[in-house]
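Morning run. Coffee first, then this:
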Amino acid sequence: TRDRNNKKLMEARGTSGISMKSLERVVSDKALKLGNSFPCQICVVGFLCGICLTSLFLAALTSIGTFELAAFSFSSFSPPCNSTSQIINMGADIDMKLKWKNKAETEEENDQVNLLVSAWDNLLLNNEDYFKKLGISKSDVPNAPHLENCEERTRARERLDTRISNHTFPSWINGGDEDNYPLTRRVQREIWYHQHPLDCEDKSLKFLVADWETLPGFGIGAQIAGMTGLLAIAINENRVLVSNYYNRADHDGCKGSARGSWSCYFLPETSKECRKRAFEVMKKREAWERGTVTGKQNYSTKEIWSGHIPKRWGKPWSYMRPTTEINGSLLTSHRKMDRRWWRAQAARYLMRFQTEYTCGLVNVARHSAFGKEAAEIVLSAGGWRKKKKKKRSEIEESVWSSHKPWIPRPMLSVHVRMGDKACEMRVAALEEYMRLADRIRERFPELNRIWLSTEMKEVVDRSKEYGQWRFYYTEVARQVGNNSMAEYEASLGREMSTNYPLVNFLMASEADFFVGALGSTWCFLIDGMRNTGGKVMSGFLSVNKDRFWRSGVKFVPVWNQFRFEFSGAQI
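And here it is:
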């Protein structure tokens, strides 16, 4: 019985062994087929590569002990696989240190910007001690793209403005003929020759000597408008205009002979020789009796303010291209077209070249507004204290030196006139001006900067509500309430009340676009300077019309801007 049982057990084991071998063989065949599949091979290779990289990383970590990443470092450690909190803390630490690094870099960049702005500040002040403390020379400071070398530029302008035999005309007109009022270049050239005769001792030469208006309530705009009328009379009567006392220049900022003279701000309207001759002649009674010299007292108010426009150039105002928009329509003509054209020409001539004093004032304004942006641009090319400034090349001396100072562009100038002007014209709130600004921006979406000029504090305060615009303006005390302009100017003092409006005037003349009020003489003159300074095709959007244009005004819709109408005729 025992033998029989053993035999049965052996047979069972044999059968089981055969079954196990069959099963192993089946599994092996399946595994071989699966292993030969492409997805499986990729997984295996990936798994093996991961093991290799992990081994290499751990070997490097344990051998080096410490490694650094950017501005932060880690000590050697082997965190347990399940230490999630440690990993999270490590990531937070990395993020914090990266932020500290970026903050430190930003602070360093800001320090460099502030240092360069400060260096330019002290260049304007001619502060030698500042540069001695830094241990650098003024010549080591990079060129400020937004500033002019006023001393150098003034010498060049004075040389150009001196008439000698065979001397070419000193052009100050920007842009092509199509970018300015009709005949601008010719008119400017002929006015200059008229005002700069070759021989001021010529006995046949006649003069008109006149002070600038000094009546209370006369602003700078009215004074300039009055002098343009006197220039027209001088040209019509073949006289050389010589301006005399200018009350707004009678302050400590205007030195020497420039005190109390227009020549404190702009080069004189005639040569030194003719001025000297005119002042000698006016002392003689017979010169007045013969008419060799005349003054304002020889002409009526009407002749000065609304007299005859010089006709030697025909009627160029009759074909001025309409570029002024009022109430959504282009202004094509009005009954003062001739005066608008002439005042623009005369103002351009009287303000053709800035003096060193005026150049310095505009430099300060530009630096205050744009200095930081200019410094960032300069520093984007590298640290300035590590570079040695090179000697200026011939092209810098002869060509690039004539380029105008940099300002951020495109720039829109907005002049908001309120206060006591309500007795002369319809005044508009800032919102109306900004609606016109938005109109321009719809066409030129890259426009987001505004040079704001106004006498009202309320306007500057309200400008902060327009976050989509970046505003620039001069830092000066502004008017609160509706006091008269004369009272406001008295509160500023003569020097400040003259300097800052002239700076705003010049900045507005150089801007790419302009929004203002034609009812204001100041805006009227700014528009004239722009239309004789290469900006005529930039247009002018006005919140109102001139108060003298009550009749004879013609408009054409903006959408039909290429149809011009003059005196009923279509061109």
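The first strand starts at residue 66 and ends at 69. Good start to the day.
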